[in-house]
């Protein structure tokens, strides 16, 4: 049974008032709220177990090291991967940059990199820079006018251009649209392409089985999965990880150093230079424990019920245009009202305690494709309920009356 009130009680931020109104948090695509267990794990580490990891022989260091590496195993289990296939990073953005930089020596002016207009800037700009460094050609998958992929057209495009690298989102951060990845990844693999999937939005909602998905690399951010900010991860098939050039150099990631040369360790240590964000890693494991304590099917079903309830009510408002694909979505609604600026709508909603995002959502090519300057984004998670939707819609209608 999915007890939404019990779950909401685990998230202290949801209990507060904003501008004298109950907080309705609809910005989980930007960052999720944190359960008490995550907050407690952070406090507990700094209060009792604070020490640097690896090599220390004293008790605190050994305890911190054990908790840190156990956290790696906990997160690896969530994705059904081996612990040595998981690299800690500052977030999904750094993880993509790590891969793009690590591939520099493997590409040249005969190479082709394929991305799409649906991507977050973090999955566009690193590939632009890689193309600039190597002379590789950068192409974008065909995207339908409504912001959805025609999978067959994408497969044909990949077969035509035979990419060396394919980088694609699992779910759009701006629209919430879920990508049908299997045929696209399969087409890329037929040409031995290296495949990277941006899972920043999907990792929480879809809980993907990464070996089954079949990509070479998958990136995610802890703070979009109930965990702390400043931490994320890179999954990479072990042979692919070790084929990448090092991204940063320093302590931790070396085997031996002389004044003449350095020998680097194997992955994942090869990519984890310096003192890591130990507290965040341990707190992230608490977030994963919280997630896995819930029934995956019940969580997804609840999210879809709330999303569909919100979509139906939003689409019934005259003058509102919804850009998200309602049929295949993680729970994000991107919309505009007539010619009103999205910033104005978001600002007015805040007066009612409604937290939404407005702007181009770090997806300017997508906004240009849709022919808009930006939109209002309401993004849902499993801790939202029907009351959140009702308050959001009532506040929105009041705001729109003020704008008319």
UniProtKB/TrEMBL annotation:
<dbReference type="InterPro" id="IPR015424">
    <property type="entry name" value="PyrdxlP-dep_Trfase"/>
</dbReference>
<protein>
    <recommendedName>
        <fullName>Cysteine desulfurase</fullName>
        <ecNumber>2.8.1.7</ecNumber>
    </recommendedName>
</protein>
<keyword id="KW-0663">Pyridoxal phosphate</keyword>
<dbReference type="InterPro" id="IPR015422">
    <property type="entry name" value="PyrdxlP-dep_Trfase_small"/>
</dbReference>
<keyword id="KW-0808">Transferase</keyword>
<dbReference type="InterPro" id="IPR015421">
    <property type="entry name" value="PyrdxlP-dep_Trfase_major"/>
</dbReference>
<keyword id="KW-0032">Aminotransferase</keyword>
<dbReference type="InterPro" id="IPR000192">
    <property type="entry name" value="Aminotrans_V_dom"/>
</dbReference>
<comment type="similarity">
    <text>Belongs to the class-V pyridoxal-phosphate-dependent aminotransferase family. Csd subfamily.</text>
</comment>
<comment type="function">
    <text>Catalyzes the removal of elemental sulfur and selenium atoms from L-cysteine, L-cystine, L-selenocysteine, and L-selenocystine to produce L-alanine.</text>
</comment>
<dbReference type="InterPro" id="IPR010970">
    <property type="entry name" value="Cys_dSase_SufS"/>
</dbReference>
<feature type="domain" description="Aminotransferase class V">
    <location>
        <begin position="24"/>
        <end position="392"/>
    </location>
</feature>
<dbReference type="Pfam" id="PF00266">
    <property type="entry name" value="Aminotran_5"/>
</dbReference>
<dbReference type="InterPro" id="IPR020578">
    <property type="entry name" value="Aminotrans_V_PyrdxlP_BS"/>
</dbReference>
<dbReference type="GO" id="GO:0008483">
    <property type="term" value="F:transaminase activity"/>
</dbReference>
